[in-house]
Amino acid sequence: MTHPPRHGVRTDLFPARAVPPRRRGRRERGRPPHADVLTPAEWRVVEAVRHGLTNPQIARRQGVSIDAVKYHVANVLQKLGFASRAELRRWQGVRRDSNLARKESSSVEPQASLGPVGQIARHVTDIAAARRWYGEVLGLPHLYSFGGLAFFDCGGLRLFLSEGEGPAESILYFRVGDIQAMHATLTARGVEFISAPHLIHRHGDGTEEWMAFFKDNEGRPLALMTQVPPATA
Predict the structure, then answer these.
(1) Looking at the structure, do residues 110 and 181 belong to the same domain, yes or no?
(2) Are residues 127 and 200 in the same domain?
(3) In this structure, are 201 and 173 located in the same domain?
(4) Which region is the signal sequence (predicted)?
(5) pLDDT tens, N- to C-terminus, the chain (233 residues)
(6) Which of 170, 168, 221, 145 is nearest to 153 (CA)?
């Protein structure tokens, strides 16, 4: 859930690959085929790339080697027929096992409007010290943390702290009900998106966090955000 480095709606999902029948008495070798166009490991890397992370940042966060990240990125670009990382950032693919893939997208409304600001992001140099200060000194309720990220509640507005270098100014995250429909609406209005809607985090209860970053009239980053709960039985 970090924002993009310094400085479009969901498309049809790819069809499942046909799986040939297993021959009797013969065990298949290698990993089982995936119904999605990308493997789970490739999806994890793709979501990180679409979030604006570099290969070293992805490697550190996912606990893999930089060579492994490069390998996955190269495979994904080849599979999707893309020539650059920039094309991948704007790719509107949605992984099949996500809540968003199971959710029916609403029609694009010309008069659709942004919801309230749901989050403000700030960079800090020491996330542990920042958690203590914002939590113990300011007394803000701590929501959750993972890695170099921490989230606090500010009377319904979420404060997002991330460790590392980044823009000095804060980023505003607007809540929306249907991130794909809003992405399409703003794109039709001429808004330039930095990244397509992508999965940021899946909570313990299965709720997913999705975001998409775009530019204001002066080229500064803003974001859409939504939470997609698991489908109810």
Answers:
(1) yes
(2) yes
(3) yes
(4) none
(5) 444 443 333 333 333 333 333 444 444 444 445 568 899 999 999 999 999 899 998 999 899 999 999 999 999 999 999 999 999 999 999 999 899 988 865 544 445 678 889 999 888 889 999 999 999 988 999 998 887 889 999 888 999 998 876 655 688 899 999 999 999 999 999 999 999 999 998 989 999 999 999 998 888 889 999 999 997 75
(6) 145
